[in-house]
Design goal:
The complex is a heterodimer of chains A (about 525) and B (about 350). Chain A has about 525 residues and is of the alpha/beta class. Chain A folds into 3 domains: about 5-175, Dimethylsulfoxide Reductase, domain 2 (3-Layer(aba) Sandwich), CATH 3.40.228.10; about 180-370, Rossmann fold, CATH 3.40.50; about 415-530, Beta Barrel (Barwin-like endoglucanases). Chain A has 19 helices and 21 strands. In chain A, the strands form 6 sheets. Chain A has a 6-stranded mixed β-barrel. The longest helix of chain A has 14 residues, at about 65-80. The N and C termini of chain A lie far apart (about 50 Å). The relative contact order of chain A is 0.13. Chain B folds into 3 domains: about 5-120, Roll (Ubiquitin-like (UB roll)); about 220-280, N-terminal domain of TfIIb (Single Sheet), CATH 2.20.25; about 285-355, Rossmann fold. Chain B has 8 helices and 16 strands. Chain B has a 5-stranded mixed beta sheet, sandwiched between helices. A 3-stranded antiparallel beta sheet of chain B has the order 10-11-12. The longest helix of chain B is centred in the C-terminal third of the chain and has 19 residues, at about 300-315. Chain B is elongated and about 90 Å long. The chains are: A alpha/beta (about 525), B alpha+beta (about 350).
Chain lengths: ~525, ~350
């Protein structure tokens, strides 16, 4: 997030696109509700009529995968009607002419054919957003889980910049991160391109810092992203895997192919808190401690580093992950220090990461969470980014062209399948399927569909249906729902313990060219009645 | 009108800002005014009457939580009239409240502000009235329960449900002594718009709204609260793990205003902690033996086997034949160690986590 969670309640306009905030980020949704309570306006762009749309001033129900068209058309309106912030563009942006030339081709009237959204709605949204100073954009996986996810983000960033919404309190561009520490994991170097502290592997100065710290020469060869790693396992280029805290067989797309590859893998280590599907292929399994059993830090979606504190003992011989990792490194012959506590690990890292130098466990214990960048021990942290000027110097406007999703519907697979989260479950649902409330509220997987589609297939609410894509077929209950548009069906991304019928047997493993994020939001399926 | 001005609180001048309530000014000045129904996240309701104060020029006592400060206002929070009011009010509340063996409002694990107030305030013993306030019927929801005998009808729970969570699953219903906290058609919470956030429990001052699965009457001394960060989504809510006899028995939200979540939690953060002590947890290292099955092993054996296996792949195919999947569920420090394992111990940049998926 460029801005902070506490700023949300003071927004005058919330533009929520590709985020079912009340289910995926309920407590941020409470901040949004507070803003609405104080009189803020709300625009929701989502293919489904999610809860927030009932409170929205405007609901844009665009087709999955048409975000670039939609946002380009909004920028088209902004520029045509002179609603852009010329002073901000002149002072802080580059490549504006190219952007203007690109969006000139995206007239709202033409948008309707691709997005399914009336031109008047696009105009209204563009005007509302561009003319409100404290207007924040909030997005989640609805923007990123596409083969053009990076393009979607570039589009939104362009819109933010040309309307001067960057560096302004209660505005900005705010991705809501889905996992407790997805921000921190990337920040700390669990990324093929980045060393800890978001320093590039390709940067020799950064590499040298860590070579000195760790006492070994560092690899310069480009690493693989997770999706590429999985494909490499399938193609026989990767022969050994170490997997911590992720059930890859459940979480990664096109699972049947991955399972076949894991059957052949030479060596697989799994570090987990519960038995997982991936464990079936493991050679060694380490039992780990959960968050309540260990110390450390998580970094949340507004870049806030906060303490994690152990409250109870891990069960049996299970141990906190950091202790296992230290022992494993030493067993592998690498002499990493025998840290007494995670505070020492943080200190080792932060000493050579300018962004984190000012943060220490002691300070977090004293002051509570601190938002990076925090360059000195007396720096208060940074709630809002880009305040005086963009951190990069100038905003590079991209002006991206629309590319359709990789798998269009056809006669054999006429429906678009999209996936997402439900409130009561969490991701692979290893934890939440063991909770009473979730088991009562959402016990089983389902396929949400419009009543027209249901009627055409002769399916009643609650009946079993077979969902078939080019990669697999599963059986779930149909849920006939007013939230859907005809032609679109939707399933939760969670694994409800019914391994045979999980949604990632259907989804595509083609990812965004930059991030590798798979296109979980759009694939073509057909639905049949069972029996 | 200027942005700030003085008011006189118990004979002393204090600075107040335009729009502030008398209660807020008093809190900042360190002047204690009792209150049961106030929560800074909610619109002022002025319904518990505990915070009434005497204001010069006003014939009647006024609720300080709703009364706006004005320039030159003279406020008395401890005048005889205010004290008389408080003594009677505590006594009336107690006459319609479940009392413990010590004759004071019942202590609960989550506290009881009425008890604390009664301890600090002289009061009379009035005849107990047994209000016919209805409890909810059978309710299969596993998390939230309501005990009408401890309810003081401050409506914090229903206002929270309306103003913060905005689902309006519960509301005040009935009139007079029959007023109670009800759902539409007295349905169980699972069949209402309730999203089981449990905010009604945290805002309840007396423990009438309580967590079904948590021990209700633990003494303060026997459980410990450990402040940590929730392990579900990326909001980073601060939570307090309530630990009793080595187990997490309840999760509560830190007080409003202190943390990024402002005292709020969702159903997962507040209630989905059963997994911590679940019988399915992995408790011993496992190694795949010659029979093709995973068998329990010692840590030493598991670590040695893992190290040997990974090194063998490296020796045979080179470092880039290894992949390291780190976890956005684990801590910063652990992610640092996994990439250090990949880069420093094995010499590959093949390290990533589920950020992309």
């Amino acid at each position: 997030m460029t801005n902070s969670i506490p700023e949300i309640e003071d927004c005058d306009l919330l533009f929520v696109i590709g985020s079912n905030t009340t289910e995926a980020h309920p407590v941020i949704a409470m901040a949004m509700k507070k803003a609405l309570h104080k009189g803020a306006k709300l625009i929701v762009a989502d293919p489904r009529a999610i809860w927030l749309t009932h409170h929205a001033d405007l609901h844009i129900q665009h087709r999955p995968g048409s975000d670039v068209w939609l946002v380009n058309a909004m920028m088209h309106v902004v520029l045509n009607e002179g609603l852009h912030d010329q002073a901000y563009i002149d002072a802080h942006c580059e490549n504006f002419e190219a952007l203007a030339a690109t969006v000139a081709d995206y007239a709202p009237e033409m948008a309707e054919a691709v997005t399914g959204v009336p031109a008047a709605q696009i105009r209204q949204a563009a005007r509302m957003y561009a003319t409100t100073k404290k207007a924040g954009i909030f997005y989640t996986l609805g923007i990123t889980e596409h083969t053009h996810g990076t393009d979607n983000v570039y589009c939104l960033a362009d819109l933010v910049a040309i309307t001067g919404h960057l560096g302004v309190r209660s505005a900005g561009l705010n991705p809501l991160r889905g996992q407790n520490n997805v921000q921190g994991a990337g920040d700390l170097g669990a990324h093929p391109d980045n060393l800890p502290g978001v320093q590039k592997v390709a940067d020799p100065v950064a590499r040298e810092r860590y070579e000195k710290l760790w006492g070994v020469p560092l690899p310069t060869k480009q690493g693989l992203t997770l999706t590429q790693m999985m494909t490499a396992v399938e193609h026989g280029a990767v022969h050994g895997l170490f997997v911590m805290g992720e059930d890859i067989v459940v979480s990664e797309p096109n699972a049947a192919q991955l399972e076949a590859a894991l059957n052949r893998i030479e060596f697989l280590v799994v570090q987990e808190i519960f038995p997982s599907e991936t464990m079936r292929f493991a050679h060694v399994v380490f039992p780990a401690g959960c968050f309540a059993e260990k110390d450390g830090t998580f970094t949340n979606t507004d870049r806030r580093v906060q303490r994690v504190r152990g409250a109870v003992q891990a069960p049996g011989q299970a141990r906190p992950d950091w202790q296992i990792l230290v022992d494993l490194m030493r067993a592998c012959g690498y002499p990493t220090p025998a840290y007494q506590n995670p505070g020492e690990i943080w200190a080792e890292m932060s000493a050579v990461s300018p962004r984190f130098v000012g943060i220490s466990h002691e300070r977090l214990d004293r002051d509570g969470g601190i938002q990076w960048p925090c360059p000195t021990p007396d720096h208060p942290g940074t709630p809002t980014l880009h305040v005086d000027r963009p951190m990069r110097g100038k905003v590079l406007l991209r002006g991206v062209a629309y590319r359709p999703p990789v798998e269009p519907t056809d006669d054999a697979y006429p429906l678009v399948l999209s996936t997402g989260r439900v409130l009561y479950h969490y991701n692979a649902a290893n934890q939440t399927t063991r909770e009473k409330g979730a088991a009562l509220k959402v016990p089983n997987n389902f396929l949400e569909m419009h009543r027209y589609d249901a009627k055409r297939l002769g399916v009643k609410d609650g009946e079993r249906v077979r969902v078939i894509s080019r990669r697999g077929a599963i059986e779930v209950a149909a849920m006939v729902s007013p939230r859907m548009k005809p032609g679109l069906v939707w399933m939760p991304l969670h694994n409800f313990g019914d391994t045979e019928n999980r949604v990632n047997l259907l989804t595509i493993d083609q990812g965004d060219p930059v991030t590798g994020t798979p296109e979980y939001k759009v694939c073509a399926v057909r639905v049949e009645r069972v029996g | 009108m200027s942005d700030s001005f003085d008011i006189v609180l118990n004979g002393e001048r204090h600075r107040a800002r335009t729009g502030e309530t008398v209660l807020r000014v008093a809190q900042r000045a360190g002047v204690h005014i009792p209150t049961l129904c106030n929560d800074d996240r909610l619109d002022a309701a002025g319904c518990c009457r505990a915070c009434l104060v005497e204001i010069d020029g006003q014939r009647r006592l006024q609720p300080s939580c709703a009364w706006k400060a004005a320039p030159g206002q003279v406020v008395h929070t401890e005048s005889p009239k205010v004290r008389r009011h408080r003594e009677l009010l505590v006594s009336l509340y107690m006459a319609d409240h479940k009392l413990g063996p010590d004759g004071l409002p019942l202590h609960t694990t989550q506290g009881n502000e009425l008890r604390a107030w009664a301890e600090a305030t002289p009061h009379k013993k009035l005849t107990q009235v047994h209000a016919p306030r209805a409890a909810r019927g059978p309710d299969a929801n596993p998390y939230v329960a309501y005990d009408p005998a401890l309810c003081i009808l401050c409506a914090k729970c229903t206002r929270y449900c309306d103003e913060i969570e905005a689902v309006n699953a519960i509301a005040l219903s009935g009139r007079g002594s029959e007023t109670t906290i009800a759902t539409a058609g007295t349905r169980g919470l699972l069949d209402t718009t309730c999203e089981l956030c449990g905010g009604c429990i945290d805002v309840c001052p007396t423990g009438a709204m309580h967590a079904k699965q948590a021990p209700r009457f633990l003494a303060k001394a026997v459980f410990e609260k450990v402040r940590t960060t929730c392990n579900y989504c990326g909001v980073g809510c601060q939570i307090d793990l309530n630990v009793h006899q080595g187990k997490v028995v309840q999760v509560t939200a830190p007080p409003p205003g202190e943390t990024v979540n402002d005292g709020n939690l969702c159903v997962k953060g507040r209630f989905a902690y059963e997994f911590i002590h679940h019988q399915d947890r992995l408790t011993t290292p496992l190694v795949r033996r010659a029979d093709g099955q995973l068998h329990p092993a010692t840590w030493q054996e598991a670590l040695d086997t893992a190290a040997k296996g990974l090194l063998r792949v490296k020796d045979k195919h080179g470092p880039d034949a290894l992949g390291f999947v780190s976890s956005s569920r684990c801590t910063n420090e652990e992610n640092y160690l996994v990439q250090k394992l990949a880069r420093a111990a094995f010499g590959t940049n093949n390290v990533h986590q589920c950020a992309a998926t």
